[in-house]
Design a protein that fits this description.
Chain A has three helices and three strands. Chain A has 98 residues and is mostly helical. Chain B folds into three domains: 307 residues, no CATH class; 113 residues, no CATH class; 58 residues, Arc Repressor Mutant, subunit A (Orthogonal Bundle), CATH 1.10.10. The N and C termini of chain B lie far apart (72 Å). The chains are: A mainly alpha (98), B alpha+beta (502). Strand 3 of chain A pairs antiparallel with strand 9 of chain B.
Chain lengths: 98, 502
């Protein structure tokens, strides 16, 4: 059984910006461990002759020529924004997390 | 803002050995963005160079810009890197309004270029090799403006305004291996390294390379360890150090700050630092996140990039001459001294002098004009010398007139002013301003008589054999003729007049 404790889940929840109750953290710790173990079973099925792969389709080098296409107007770009000012998206001041 | 305790640089160097590392972000100058066909243009109206991909709308699919891949490979090759046989993009997950997708498309475990080096020449000619760990592709983020706070900084801001024009602009991030052994030259090396990277990407034509516009941005990592210890100390990462001078200052400051922390017996905190140009200090940013916290995973919407070896070799064959080699060649060709050449490089007129020589000027004439005349005017006008718009042909023409004795150097300088003021070609200006060396001795003799009469004591000195006093008389004549006389001829005539033979 994968070792995922409550602190791991709390950390992930914080990274994902998801608020979770104490009860949810406990339940998710158990559930996530089961999920991780289930995914792990895939690697048991794949032998050494199967390379790790991230893309299931045999495609590469899908490129676009460097030609300018369509753009939105500022009005269109901002049409779905909860708030805007001076043709820019207005967001609450957020502490530097980037 | 708290003030850090710092040690003097000399004391820090006595006790500690600095280890550096750099992440330099280069914005590519492709016509469109990395994953969308929106234009990559600086300075447009906010949120007008965006489409659904840049705004991270649901269901959109990114498509890689082929020109950006090509530029990235060129950068890798110019940094002596290996180019990956196959590489992929990854998502770097974080929540911050500079990216509307809540992740930045980047590369993680498979960069397009890796294992390179760059030889950096320091001011005294010492060559220092900086090893390049990797150069990977990613996209730039949008631009945030913090509003409402007194300082415009994030602290105390009420809200932020976001412009996504820059979101998705192609970036190449160049990461060095730890740089050891620079010692007290670490700040100088830091500046020289960033300058070399900037020069290379400019020379390749893949970036506008203007640091003041953020086309080239540097994060500087600094750590200290006691002399003789192999293990690295804990590092700080100073973000967005955006001028060459600031790179040097920031590295120097961080060395001094770390040394003071270590001397006090405290541990250095692993964190990002913000550079402040006004006070030339850094302040604490956030604690550095673990890479794990970004939960990188392969970007499922983009298939791998597999540059064929033929393509890579084609690009390699078409690379321009590396800037350092070009400088070596030009210095030898032109026969300038070390000092003369360094001054030319520092003044930023290497291209201009090369073009002027190509137009027919001698190497010394080209240097005299650019360094003696044009650089000073550019400085006064607060622009780059090249921006004044002086044509190589103009310099060749002016130099030819001086050589033919038609005008003297002082007049040539006036003619240049006329050219810059848009008064016409040098020949037209000479005509219009009535500038020509007076070769008829008649008017000269009158002026000489007047000058001698005005300074009889000087005239006596010259008669008495003190020929070096003649400058005062020549000066008087030049003044009277508004600089149009041939000074050499004036001197001859004065001596003749006073019956002095030299």
């Amino acid at each position: 059984m994968a070792a995922i404790n409550r602190d791991d889940v709390a950390h992930l929840a914080r990274l994902a910006h998801i608020e979770m109750s104490a009860e949810e953290l406990d339940r998710m710790a158990g559930e996530l461990a089961v999920i991780v173990d289930s995914v792990k079973s895939v690697s048991e099925a794949a032998g050494d002759d199967v390379p790790a792969t991230s893309h299931p389709i045999p495609l590469s080098n899908v490129f676009r020529e460097d030609v300018v296409g369509h753009t939105f107007t500022a009005e269109q770009a901002l049409s779905g924004a909860p708030d805007s000012d001076d043709n820019r998206f207005k967001v609450p001041a957020i502490l530097d997390e980037a | 803002m708290s003030t850090d305790h710092i040690l003097s640089f000399e004391e820090a160097m006595e006790k500690y050995d600095p280890v550096l590392g750099f992440e330099v972000h280069v914005e590519l100058n492709t016509k469109t963005k990395m994953f969308s066909s929106a234009p990559n243009v600086f300075g447009d109206e906010p949120n007008t160079n965006v489409n659904e991909v840049d705004l991270g709308m649901p269901g959109v699919l990114p498509v890689v810009n082929k020109a950006a891949i090509e530029s990235s490979i060129k950068i890798g090759l110019a940094l002596n890197c290996k180019i990956a046989e196959s590489c992929r993009f990854a998502r770097k997950n974080y929540f911050y309004p500079d990216t509307p997708k809540n992740f930045q498309t980047s590369q993680y475990d498979e960069p397009i270029a890796y294992d390179g080096y760059l030889d950096i020449e320091l001011s005294d000619g010492t060559v220092f090799r900086v090893e390049i760990e990797r150069a990977h592709m990613e996209e730039d983020a949008g631009k945030l403006t913090h509003m409402g706070g007194a300082t415009g900084r994030i602290q105390g801001a009420d809200f932020s305004l976001v412009d996504y024009n820059r979101a998705g602009v192609p970036l190449v991030e160049i990461v060095t291996k730890p740089i050891e052994g620079a010692g007290s030259r670490a700040p100088e090396l830091a500046k020289a390294y960033v300058a070399a990277v900037r020069e290379i990407v400019k020379n390749l034509g893949v970036s506008d390379a203007k640091m003041e516009r953020g086309n080239v941005r540097c994060d500087a990592n600094v750590s200290l360890r006691p002399h003789g210890r192999e293990r690295f100390g804990i590092r700080s990462e100073t973000k967005n150090v955006n001028s060459l001078r600031a790179v040097e200052h920031a590295v120097r400051y961080e060395i001094q700050r770390h040394a003071a922390v270590l001397e006090a017996g405290e541990p250095v905190v692993q964190e990002t630092r913000h550079w402040h140009e006004d006070t030339r200090t850094t302040t604490s940013g956030r604690a550095k996140s673990d890479a794990d916290d970004y939960r990188y995973f392969p970007e499922p919407d983009l298939v791998p990039v597999v540059p064929s070896r033929e393509w890579v070799e084609e690009l390699r064959a078409a690379l321009p001459e590396p800037p350092a080699e070009r400088r070596k060649r030009l210095k030898a060709d032109w026969g300038y001294s070390d000092l003369e050449f360094r001054d030319v490089v520092n003044a930023g007129v290497l291209d201009e002098i090369e073009e002027t020589i190509a137009a027919g000027a001698s190497a010394s004439v080209a240097r005299k004009w650019w360094m003696g005349e044009i650089v000073g005017r550019a400085k006064a006008a607060d622009v780059d010398p090249g921006q004044l718009g002086v044509q190589p042909a103009t310099i060749v023409e002016l130099a030819g007139m001086v050589e033919a004795g038609k005008i003297n150097n002082k007049m040539a300088s006036q003619v240049l002013d006329g050219v810059l003021a848009g008064e016409g070609t040098p020949e037209e200006i000479v005509e219009k301003r009535g500038l020509a060396v007076v070769s008829d001795d008649g008017p000269l003799l009158e002026a000489i008589d007047a000058a001698l009469a005005a300074q009889p004591d000087v005239a006596d000195k010259i008669r008495g054999g003190k020929v070096q006093a003649i400058g005062a008389i020549v000066g008087g004549v030049m003044k009277a003729t508004r600089g149009q006389a041939d000074a050499g001829r004036v001197r001859e005539l004065i001596l003749e007049k006073l019956g002095v033979t030299v």
